[in-house]
């Protein structure tokens, strides 16, 4: 994507009512106005809140919002030029139960209050295989503790990935932490019992992975209360 195109998308994002772009300072010092008030001040309803972390182009958030109109969805990514597509599609299709938040996932606790989130989707994250990059792995213990703080008791986390490494790493970690694994499969398209929201929605890259013969893995789990 050219720099002109990126700038155009950044400018357009500023005009989108479904895009929130707090400054780092707001998030870090606790002054982000929607923290704890997403239902009352943004969505203006009491529907469950579902996050997609590292949402990329926002395809999963948009499609989940269509499939589950009784829930609110928020795609989270630091790269606004990517989720521009999802935000624009949501506005064009008048989807009022989906929004996009531009922030670092490391700062997620500054954007959501304790027990404010019902579910989290992590879709095709970078597995960060190199040892030096493990601190950025979205299912490491530090990130799981962040999710634990914002999730309601009994809230779900979904991990969908083409990385067998990420799948195995996360399963091992969850077993070691004695967290509750509700469903796990290393090939969701090769399993008859896969949840429909996992196989009926595909991202652009996912369809490419499938064409290449890659298997798509999935885990649904819960974290013990704080």
Topology:
Layout: H1 3-15, E1 19-20, H2 24-29, H3 38-43, E2 49-53, H4 59-67, E3 72-77, H5 80-92, E4 98-102, E5 117-123, H6 141-150, E6 151-161, H7 164-177, E7 180-185, H8 196-199, H9 204-211, E8 217-222
Parallel strand pairs: 1-4, 2-3, 2-5, 3-4, 5-6
Antiparallel strand pairs: 6-8, 7-8
Helix pairs in contact: 1-5
Range of helix content: 25-40%
Largest sheet: 8 strands, mixed
CATH topology: Rossmann fold
Cα Rg: 17 Å
Task: Report the uncertain regions.
Answer: none
* Element string (H = helix, E = strand): HEHHEHEHEEHEHEHHE
The counted number of beta strands is: 8
Structure in words:
By secondary structure, this protein is of the alpha/beta class. The protein has one domain (3-222): Vaccinia Virus protein VP39 (Rossmann fold). The chain has helices at residues 3-15, 24-29, 38-43, 59-67, 80-92, 141-150, 164-177, 196-199, 204-211; strands spanning 19-20, 49-53, 72-77, 98-102, 117-123, 151-161, 180-185, 217-222. An 8-stranded mixed beta sheet has the order 1-4-3-2-5-6-8-7, with helices on both faces. Strand 2 (49-53), helix 4 and strand 3 (72-77) form a beta-alpha-beta unit. Helix 1 (3-15) crosses helix 5. The longest helix has 14 residues, at 164-177. The radius of gyration is 17 Å and the shape is globular. The model has no long low-confidence stretch (mean pLDDT 94).
Q: Short summary of the structure?
A:
The chain is an alpha/beta fold and 226 residues long.
């Amino acid at each position: 994507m050219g720099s002109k195109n990126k700038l155009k998308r950044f400018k357009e994002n500023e005009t989108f009512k479904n895009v929130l772009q707090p400054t780092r300072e707001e998030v870090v010092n606790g002054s982000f106005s929607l923290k704890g008030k997403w239902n009352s001040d943004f969505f203006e309803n009491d529907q469950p809140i579902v996050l997609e972390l590292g949402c990329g182009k926002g395809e999963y958030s948009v499609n989940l919002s269509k499939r589950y109109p009784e829930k609110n969805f928020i795609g989270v990514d630091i790269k606004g030029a990517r989720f521009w597509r999802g935000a624009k599609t949501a506005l064009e299709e008048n989807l009022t139960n989906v929004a996009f938040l531009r922030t670092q996932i490391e700062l997620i606790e500054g954007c959501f209050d304790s027990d404010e989130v019902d579910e989290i989707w992590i879709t095709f994250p970078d597995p960060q295989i190199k040892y030096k990059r493990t601190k950025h792995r979205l299912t490491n213990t530090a990130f799981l503790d962040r999710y634990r703080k914002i999730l309601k008791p009994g809230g779900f986390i979904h991990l969908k990935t083409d990385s067998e490494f990420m799948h195995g790493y996360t399963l091992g970690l969850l077993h070691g932490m004695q967290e509750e694994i509700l469903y796990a499969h290393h090939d969701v398209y090769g399993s008859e019992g896969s949840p429909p929201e996992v196989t009926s929605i595909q991202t652009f890259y996912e369809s490419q992975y499938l064409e290449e013969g890659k298997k798509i893995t999935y885990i649904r789990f819960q974290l013990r209360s704080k």
